[in-house]
Amino acid sequence: MARAGGKANLNDVAKQAGVSLATASRVLNGSARTVGAELQERVREVAARLDYSPSGPAQAMARGATNVIGLVVPDIADPYFSTTAAGIMHEAEPHGMIITLSSTQRRSEREAEYIASLRRQRARGVILVGSRTTDSRHEADLRAEVEAFTAAGGRVAAISQHRLPADTVLVENRAGARALAETLVGLGYRRFAVLAGPSDLVTARDRLAGFREGLRRAGITLDSADVIPGEFTRDGGYAAATALLDEDRDVECVFAVNDVMAVGAVAAFRDRGLNLPDDLAVAGFDDIVSLRDIWPPLTTVRVPLEQLGREALKFVLDEPGDGSRVRRFRGEVVVRASTPALG
Amino acid sequence: MARAGGKANLNDVAKQAGVSLATASRVLNGSARTVGAELQERVREVAARLDYSPSGPAQAMARGATNVIGLVVPDIADPYFSTTAAGIMHEAEPHGMIITLSSTQRRSEREAEYIASLRRQRARGVILVGSRTTDSRHEADLRAEVEAFTAAGGRVAAISQHRLPADTVLVENRAGARALAETLVGLGYRRFAVLAGPSDLVTARDRLAGFREGLRRAGITLDSADVIPGEFTRDGGYAAATALLDEDRDVECVFAVNDVMAVGAVAAFRDRGLNLPDDLAVAGFDDIVSLRDIWPPLTTVRVPLEQLGREALKFVLDEPGDGSRVRRFRGEVVVRASTPALG
DNA sequence: AGCATGGCGGAAAGAGCTTTCCCGGTCTTG
DNA sequence: CAAGACCGGGAAAGCTCTTTCCGCCATGCT
């Protein structure tokens, strides 16, 4: 509580150095104004001796700005988001920015709340990662908060999510999924099923749509019974895969719209006694590094997660900040053992 | 820059509501002092209308305390740390605490720096996760910063790391590794190798020591050539495993001191054409959830990562904060397919 | 010698809150 | 009915800095 507890403030430093507050401040900030060498030395020496630590909150007030960037993710334990976060932090460091982290536990209705909190903190910017967009009530709240934040002079960037009045970093999910479908068809697969993730997640929807497009070009259509929705998590993938098996469809290759689900699906198939990849091929999306060692290694679409984060941070830090710029990243299809070429 | 940009402050609210600053503040904080119902309503109404957002920095100044808790981890992209972080955030939420995240990129010499930054932010507390302890020069810096932070009234908690003047949450690495060794011996294994991780990491050292103890009880000793140091990462595990293979030792079971390394080792063995688990058994430590689906499923020691985080946060939030309390968690051996019973 | 410059240091005005202290009016109570 | 206890409200101090505005003194010029 008594955060002041015996610690020296700038006033103490100034007094002990026998200079004014203004001078002390100037010395310690390397201000434009010149200060005599002798005084500089004296001030610095005293500051060091008193173990002076400038008050962030006070500086923020006086300067009218903080160095805080807020990061809002659905689930920090998910490797997709933690990798993206790593990219952001990497970029933030050299700029002296402080990252505050909020995890919505995949309850996107909390995003608005967190942005409001960030506004209270007077954060410079917010980076929003991959939220949903269809629940119109919550979306309205979210838009309102984003606008309020922007109106207050803050900058907002979004990753993997359209429709927000903010600079946006996008993955070309559609194109990536389309290319993946074409590749799989090229490998000889004809009968597909898709573990489609949550239907209110743009990312999931786009990947499904792109995949469909790719198949259609090859004259293949996806029966609606072959599209299994579910959670965007490992367990969601497991459940969807189990459901698929229960329907007993005739399928050669399963596309899970993200790697995490794909891993769950692989586990489910194995639990049911299937021998992968011979009995069934599986493909994912994202190319999550920590999942590269599962067996069989997943065919997937590589997404430059860290770069997504870095670009988003650049958006937040860049001066201009006109209306809403967009930066797109292509995914690259990576074929691995989980989808061997057919006969 | 101009973060003030047109936004209303408490003064504006007070004026428009026709009350004093003090009253407005009291209403908005639900202060102990009672305020007439009518005024309350008026103030709230105006605040809402002006979209008033109290300034965090200003509140921090006036109150002499922030709601910031700093979290310092080696690498947020590592599932060990991201899971722990999730536990912390989970617990932090209901307390209205704000988490700021710093990732040292496994360069522990930066920890001191980050703590200093947190002190400047006037953070209430710091949670330090799993750093090294042997480099005496950096350790001295770190201790100094921790003490300075504490002297300034902040609270420090450490996870998986002794020797710091702070409340500590520990995993019983030694006992866990010992139990694991005994279990493996019970399964019939006799010839072991250990991928030991970095020698300056207490966690790694304790696990190795515990494993050795367990073996010794069974009359087995570990040749120093059977202990391969390396990085605490997937690639470190891969490299160490490769090195082990190159030495061509006669080994039945490899213990990697954490799961992430174990996964790297599994990949290395497979790349060398070994058929797991028949040709070689592998065990890990931590029971990282996102790694549960690798093949073969890893025998490991389960560590309650989220709980570690939660307890650490409790330490930071709890009133008392005497000297340095310690909370220990046992690990639980989990046998899976990667170490089948022998013969 | 007289005056305009420039350099350097200080006083003071905020920045936006919380909280203590004070005061006038009510309500209670003997 | 007077007096003390309360209650609700406001004025103002204080938290720790940054930055503008002033003023002093020493130069440099003419």
Automatic annotation (TrEMBL), chains A, B:
The keyword Metal-binding does not apply. InterPro entries: HTH_LacI, LacI/GalR-like_sensor, Lambda_DNA-bd_dom_sf, Peripla_BP_I. It comes from the Bacteria. Pfam families: LacI (PF00356), Peripla_BP_3 (PF13377). SMART domains: HTH_LACI. Keywords: DNA-binding, Transcription, Transcription regulation. Residues 8-63 form the HTH lacI-type domain. One of its GO terms (molecular function) is DNA-binding transcription factor activity. This is LacI family transcriptional regulator. It comes from Halosaccharopolyspora lacisalsi.
